[in-house]
Specification:
- The chain contains one helix and five strands; from the N terminus they run ββββαβ.
- With 68 residues, it is of the alpha+beta class.
- The chain has a domain of 47 residues.
- Strands 2-3-4 form a three-stranded antiparallel sheet, with no helix packed on it. It has a two-stranded antiparallel sheet with strand order 1-5.
- A hairpin with a 2-residue loop joins strand 2 and strand 3.
- The chain is elongated, with a radius of gyration of 17 Å.
- The termini are far apart.
- 12% of the residues are buried.
């Protein structure tokens, strides 16, 4: 399992901002992707789910080879 973000779905923790398991959360989602070990710890302790990586990395700009 690759590093992914985790979203808290526990009713009382939706929208949670702060630290849990030494992991930062903002609005109920981890601030950055977490390791498989942390994912398993969070998923087994509170109702939560993995977040699909929907953020696309920007493509590098192509160099203009026209010579102008």
């Amino acid at each position: 399992m690759a590093e992914k973000k985790v979203k808290l779905t526990e009713r009382s923790m939706r929208g949670y901002t702060g630290h849990l398991f030494m992991t930062g959360f903002k609005d109920g989602v981890t601030v950055s992707p977490v390791s498989q070990r942390k994912q398993e710890r969070i998923l087994s302790t509170v109702r939560s789910e993995l977040v699909a990586d929907t953020v696309k990395k920007p493509e590098p700009e192509k160099a203009d080879d026209s010579g102008e």
